[in-house]
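pinned: reference chain
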Amino acid sequence: MRHDESVPPTPRRPGLSAAAALAVLCLGVSGCGGDGGAAQAQPGKGGEAAPSSAAASTPATTVTPSPVRTSPAPSKKPATPSPPAPDLPSGPLSGKTVVIDPGHNPDNHLHTAEINRQVDIGTTHKECDTTGTSTNSGYAEARFTLDVSHRLRTLLRAQGAKVILTFDGDRAFGPCVDERARIGNKAGADAVVSVHADGSAAGNRGFHVILPASVRGGGADTSKIVGPSRDLGTRIAGLFVRATGSAPSNYIGGNTGLDTRKDLGGLNLSTVPKVFIECGNMRDPKDAALLTSAGWRQKAAQGIADGISSYLKG
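pinned: its structure tokens
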């Protein structure tokens, strides 16, 4: 049973110098090295009643009326204003909006009927979401993606970016892949990154960044984002090498660290620059040792943040 949207092709032998080559290439690109996200009642108008003749012939009796007590009008308490949103620090990414999309959901496995529902991804239909993969020891991809996404948010906010997560552990399942795309579109994001880890065979190692293919059909039209997304993905790939020391994938992308796909709803339906990053292979013991390390996850977040920052600063 497939755990992830990614289906790795036949394994290829690793290129030993790919990491160094990509890092050198990136550092040679101008701008690639990022700095290191009650209405008041009105009285009625009535005349006094004229006394009747019987009342007029009766001796008058003086009656002292009881004082009329009126309740004071209730005081209107001013509405408590909502606390203002915390000001973002000024920085090189001030005015920029970044959407981070943590892949999958830790509780998707409890809602298989819901996540297996087919949704329109423009050119075809696909499952709402999947459970994701895990390491052999049981560390779930969905836990990994949330952790890296939180670290990434902190790094980008420190540079002044407005950062939105597609979800933050606050949903029972999903969101579905089409909704994930709509969140980035609605935000008018300057960049969107979907964070993942792969589930391939042991021996297949390294990271790769997935770029949107040129797709047009149904509700999908990536023609305006293919170029910007490639720029974003290339910068992330180069700076991920520098921050983590990890090599580009030896089984996808021909050692470039880049792969182009047209079967992912999160990319097909996006109208803003967007990429996926598979940070490593959870099923390989050596990659799994990295992915389960908090220190390495911080490096992964730094590499992604550096790539986003480099792209947004141009």
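why pinned: The first helix runs from residue 18 to 27. The beta strands are 97-102, 118-120, 125-127, 162-165, 191-198, 208-212, 216-217, 220-221, 258-261, 274-281.
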